[in-house]
Write a sequence for this structure.
């Protein structure tokens, strides 16, 4: 599978913003014409910056080394109702919590004991904030994943800080393929999740790849990145449910960005839900997850 990214858009040949918060609207570079400042300083297409000092709520160490992926899955065929299955057909992947590497991408995973190879299972790809880790984001989702029976994957960014719009997108593309092979993923219920820098990046990648991801969940992010990179509103692949979480007292990415995203998505006819942490700062608040998960799954049903 190839993730359709801003790699394929003229917008993304310029380096992206790499600051602590969203780029103000009056400072957006004209990336559609391959101009703008090279704020990222690299040759890999720039990065989405995040909060470089508030933390992303990561906790704990990696859950341990993951085993080999095992057998490669076969075509998923049809389910027992005769309807075409939405499963990827993967099998042989480990159950439990651990970490693994595919190509240049290191990722953490949590696979609940309820996951069985003959039943397609949803998956959340959770992208960390600046300075965070994939294992830290997986730890935030573990309890809900066990209750609702879905897999969580936490990709580590190449830099360990912001998210690059070339190499990290290539990494996500390879990771989606890897996960589809190791477990029988419900391909209509892949969900992209991001916090802070991961949310900025998630808006761009999730909206551009709404034919790959069935839902998008963001916390403390700004959709202005998707606008500045030419993805929103005309570069998407169709509407998907978007669940937004944000603290009203966020001084890094102000709450107004969440209200703006909700208004724009709603006006365009996209299913959208805004969960508000009253008095909440930029720090990650896992309390938004259950509401967001229910909203996305109920919309997809």
């Amino acid at each position: 599978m190839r993730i359709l990214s801003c790699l394929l858009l003229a917008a993304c040949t310029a380096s992206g913003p790499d600051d602590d918060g969203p780029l103000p609207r009056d400072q957006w570079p004209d990336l559609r014409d391959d101009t703008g400042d090279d704020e990222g300083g690299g040759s890999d297409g720039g990065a989405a910056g995040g909060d470089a000092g508030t933390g992303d709520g990561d906790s704990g160490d990696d859950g341990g080394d993951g085993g080999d992926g095992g057998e490669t899955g076969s075509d998923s065929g049809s389910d027992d109702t005769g309807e075409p299955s939405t499963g990827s057909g993967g099998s042989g992947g480990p159950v439990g919590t651990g970490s693994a590497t595919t190509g240049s991408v290191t990722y953490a995973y949590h696979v609940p004991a309820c996951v069985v190879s003959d039943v397609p299972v949803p998956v959340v790809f959770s992208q960390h904030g600046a300075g965070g880790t994939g294992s830290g984001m997986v730890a935030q989702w573990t309890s809900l994943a066990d209750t609702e029976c879905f897999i969580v994957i936490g990709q580590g960014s190449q830099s360990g800080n912001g998210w690059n719009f070339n190499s990290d997108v290539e990494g996500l593309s390879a990771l989606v393929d890897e996960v589809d092979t190791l477990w029988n993923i419900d391909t209509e219920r892949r969900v992209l999740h991001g916090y802070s820098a991961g949310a900025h990046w998630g808006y761009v990648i999730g909206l551009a790849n709404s034919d790959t991801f069935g839902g998008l969940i963001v916390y403390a992010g700004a959709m202005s990145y998707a606008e500045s990179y030419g993805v929103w509103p005309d570069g998407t692949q169709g509407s998907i449910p978007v669940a937004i979480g944000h603290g009203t007292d966020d001084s890094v990415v102000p709450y107004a960005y969440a209200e703006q995203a909700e208004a724009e998505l709603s006006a365009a006819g996209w299913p959208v839900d805004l969960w508000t942490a009253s008095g909440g700062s930029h720090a990650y608040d896992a309390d938004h997850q259950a509401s967001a998960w229910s909203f996305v799954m109920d919309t997809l049903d």
